[in-house]
């Protein structure tokens, strides 16, 4: 639609064959809610930076992540919990360290949001 035009049809017409087939193939509400939560998790710049760093490094402890993205450790921990709750990250303990990594879904979604190459990936090439 062009600017100034309403975002709705002036005439009600429904291709019932196409619309019915499409409607029956739509994902279940539960599935779309999970997908929306995952997308929302990467909608925050700090969480996206955390996910980008994890996409490159594979695994990082919270203190390393905080230093890499230039944020306080408690803020990074908060965002990591959010990513974990959305199913995009996992955590494990290594002694006194909390180590985080992206899930396969988290890695795929991060790459989709950032484009073909995460920003941190280019930086890792210089290491």
UniProtKB/TrEMBL annotation:
Domain HTH arsR-type: 27-121
GO molecular function list: DNA binding; DNA-binding transcription factor activity
Pfam families: HTH_5
Flavoprotein in keyword set: no
UniProt entry keywords in alphabetical sequence: DNA-binding, Transcription, Transcription regulation
Keyword Transcription regulation: yes
CDD domains per UniProt: HTH_ARSR
Positions of transmembrane segments: none
Top-level taxonomic group: Bacteria
Protein name (database record): Regulatory protein ArsR
Organism: Streptomyces zinciresistens K42
Taxonomic placement: Bacteria, Bacillati, Actinomycetota, Actinomycetes, Kitasatosporales
